[in-house]
Amino acid sequence: MKLVTICKNWSGMTPKYTPGKCNIGSRGRAIRLSTGAVLIALSVIIGVTALIQVVWVVRLALVLPLYAGMLAALEGSTSFCVLHAARGTYDFHEPMGFASNRSKTVNRVGSEDWKKLDRRRALRMHVEALAGAVLLATILALA
Question: Which of 6, 11, 28, 141 is disulfide-compatible with 59, CB 3.0–4.6 A?
Fold first, then answer.
């Protein structure tokens, strides 16, 4: 019963910028999660069907769309956008659901220490996405 109450209260909370942890809102999360899932699924489908007769080295090229999909899925699942981290911004009400300079709700991160935390987190997310993409592309190439 408490878990339901905690989740209910959590879903009603307004997002708050937390250095190295949270810099996007629910709309950005949803779009990033769906984009990541679609990119990963399409890459796997193409790797299994269209490229099955191609040399395995060519199938390793799937690492690029897999990397983009893994990074988008990571961003959506962690409420953290690496592009916002690189720019030193955060935005919880993105009108288009992705980091854009045209957004009127984008805010600047105030502290240099906070920017360092954001960049460190972004670098870790890039490494995690690349490792996952290489692993999945290798599995698809050797299958």
Answer: 141
Evaluated on CA atoms 129, 135, 139, 140, the torsion sign reads positive
Residue 87 sits at φ, ψ, to 5 deg, of: -85, -15
Evaluate whether 72 touches 16 at the Cβ level (below 8 Å): no
Residues 6+ positions from 104 with CB-CB distance below 8 Å: 95
Domain boundaries, the chain: 19-142
Identity of residue 18:
T
Strands (E), 91-131: 107-108
Report the distance separating Cα 32 and Cα 26, nearest Å: 10
pLDDT in tens, 18-34: 898 998 988 899 999 99
Say how far apart CA 134 and CA 112 lie, in whole Å. Answer: 33
From the list 95, 109, 100, the residue with the least C-alpha distance to 23 is 109
The token pair at 12 is: 């009603």
User: How far, in Å, are 45, 104, 127 from residue 60 at the CA level?
Assistant: 14, 40, 18
Backbone dihedral angles phi then psi of residue 2, each to the nearest 5 degrees: -65, -40
Question: pTM for the whole thing?
Answer: 0.84
